[in-house]
Backbone:
């Protein structure tokens, strides 16, 4: 059985909104960890390690709860783009991504306290950025939106709209791949809402073609 109390170790409003689509009450418990990549660490491994670290930090405060956490890493040809420290770094990231394709890796980690088990899955999507102008970058920076985002952008931003196309799980790019999270929870006997894919697509206003493959994958 899965514990009744669920805790999301995140301050992200995007993850907080997406987690509600599972239909189970979730408490919010932001945690602070060092998000610096380790020497020689690849982007997917970095995302997985950080998601697990967030779970471990939250366990100290809610040891009896089911802990959920996620971490997103933007991968530009193997180079990890984290959250920008300031406007100059955000500007540089957005210019580097301009008109190019890159990968986004979002790891989800869940700890089941009675089992003493933590499971981690990494969802990877390919994002093709449009050729936005420098003036658009400056206007986007002025909104303040880039500064808590990996890669300095939100794919769903209503006016900047940086992506020309997303291949793979759109929710992973937003910050919480619900189908991958569902796969973890199902292994422990949890039954997701039957209409979860419809809920996700409606919330993100994005037509998804990959959810059957993800949800039906063995493992």
Residues:
């Amino acid at each position: 059985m899965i514990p009744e109390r669920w805790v999301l170790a995140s301050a992200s409003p995007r993850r907080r909104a997406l987690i509600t689509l599972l239909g189970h009450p979730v408490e919010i418990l932001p945690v602070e960890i060092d998000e610096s990549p380790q020497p020689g660490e690849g982007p997917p491994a970095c995302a997985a390690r950080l998601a697990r670290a967030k779970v471990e930090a939250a366990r100290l405060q809610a040891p009896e709860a089911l802990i959920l956490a996620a971490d997103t890493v933007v991968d530009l040809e193997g180079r990890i783009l984290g959250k920008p420290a300031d406007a100059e770094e955000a500007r540089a990231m957005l210019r580097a991504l301009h008109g190019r394709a890159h990968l986004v890796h979002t790891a989800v980690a869940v700890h089941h306290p009675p089992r003493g088990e933590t499971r981690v899955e990494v969802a990877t999507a390919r994002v093709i950025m449009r050729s936005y102008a420098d003036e658009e970058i400056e206007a986007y920076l002025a909104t303040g939106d880039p500064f808590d985002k990996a890669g300095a952008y939100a794919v769903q931003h209503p006016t900047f709209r940086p992506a020309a196309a997303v291949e793979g799980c759109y929710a992973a790019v937003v910050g919480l791949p619900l189908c991958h999270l569902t796969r973890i929870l199902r292994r422990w006997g949890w039954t997701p809402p039957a209409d979860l894919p419809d809920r996700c697509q409606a919330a993100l206003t994005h037509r998804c073609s990959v959810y059957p493959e993800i949800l039906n994958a063995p493992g």
